[in-house]
Design brief:
Layout: H1 3-11, H2 19-33, E1 34-39, E2 43-50, H3 53-67, E3 72-77, E4 85-91, H4 94-103, H5 128-142, E5 143-145, E6 154-158, H6 161-172, E7 179-183, E8 186-191, H7 194-203, H8 207-257, H9 265-276, H10 282-288, H11 295-317
Antiparallel strand pairs: 1-2, 2-4, 3-4, 5-6, 6-8, 7-8
Helix pairs in contact: 2-3, 2-5, 7-8, 8-9, 8-11, 9-11, 10-11
Length: 318
């Protein structure tokens, strides 16, 4: 089971106690994957589609708990495209359809549909708890989340910009930075920051998935920290080795051209100590001198030797 399916399975078992929160979740579900069909014999039918059996079970139970109405569940399979089963939950009775649509504010008391029926009414989302239920319903209907071992990505796919903006704004109310991008003919609300995906899982009431993602994040951060430290140490070692190689080359050049005996006493001593200890760090070289000096003192003397070697090379080239 994918991580996304695990999250949906966990959310499918979460039921808000308050009826207004249940209505908010149903409103999101109907908005995202509900369809209204008109039949001459029976009137309006309300159908909700999903490809996840846990989500289908949640829809079925939620409608029963909230409205105490009967629904039917049909299972379909597209053998040509070799897709998984799809599930269609249908409310058949006209009075039940009207009851649900009025409760979620997709139909007014006179039986008319509001102008902006693409979005859920703000009256449904007046409480923070209802906003949580709304996000949970929207994610169950049209959301997905990547496996945290690979990368961090949470998204909800919308059929209109109005729906996407509403979901983004509701997520923003929890101080989570969701953004919208267009993908083909859809509008995708997404979150990419790992810590913010943890926050949205908390908002949706998915503690198990939250803990799993947090554990992966901790391991990733530890690995990254170790890698950064190793890279830093490797770079320092390479820098130190390269500097030592250059110092020895300069000292040998001075030895071959003018002889180390011709150097000032302090420079001659550090030159011989460096030749005898090619891999020693500067601090250690300073301790080997007859009159020990610190790292900066050793570095200063070695730089003088390098300058002298470069000057001699310049003269020879002229």
């Amino acid at each position: 089971m994918s991580f996304s399916s695990q999250v949906k399975d966990e959310l499918s078992k979460q039921f808000s106690q308050a009826r207004h929160c249940q209505i908010a979740e149903i409103a999101a579900i109907i908005s995202m994957c509900g369809r209204l069909n008109y039949q001459k014999e029976t009137g309006i039918l309300l159908k909700i589609h999903t490809e996840n059996v846990s989500v289908a079970r949640k829809y079925f139970t939620l409608l029963k708990k909230t409205f105490n109405i009967d629904t039917s569940v049909a299972i379909r399979r597209n053998t040509y495209l070799k897709k998984n089963h799809s599930y269609v939950i249908t409310i058949h009775h006209q009075e039940d359809v009207v009851k649900v649509l009025k409760a979620v504010k997709l139909m007014d008391e006179s039986g008319k549909f509001p102008e902006n029926h693409a979005c859920v009414s703000n009256l449904i989302l007046s409480n923070a708890c209802c906003k949580r239920a709304f996000i949970r319903g929207a994610f169950l209907a049209a959301g997905s989340i990547s496996a945290p071992e690979k990368f961090y990505h949470y998204e909800i796919v919308c059929t209109s910009i109005e729906k996407a903006e509403q979901i983004r704004d509701v997520i923003h109310s929890f101080a989570i930075d969701a953004k919208i991008v267009m993908r083909k003919k859809y509008f995708v609300v997404y979150i990419k920051e790992g810590s913010q995906i943890v926050d949205i899982l908390n908002v949706m009431d998915a503690p198990k998935a939250l803990m799993e993602l947090e554990n992966v994040r901790i391991l990733k951060e530890m690995r990254n920290s170790v890698n950064r430290q190793v890279n830093c140490e490797t770079a320092n070692i390479n820098k130190t080795v390269s500097a030592a190689v250059k110092q020895i080359e300069d000292i040998k050049y001075l030895e071959e051209t003018v002889g180390l005996d011709s150097l000032p006493e302090n420079l001659e001593e550090i030159a011989r100590v460096r030749l005898e200890n090619p891999e020693a760090p500067l601090k250690e070289l300073g301790a080997y001198l007859s009159k020990p000096v610190g790292k900066s003192g050793v570095n200063h003397r070695l730089r003088k030797l390098s300058v002298m070697a470069e000057e001699l090379r310049g003269k020879r080239e002229d």
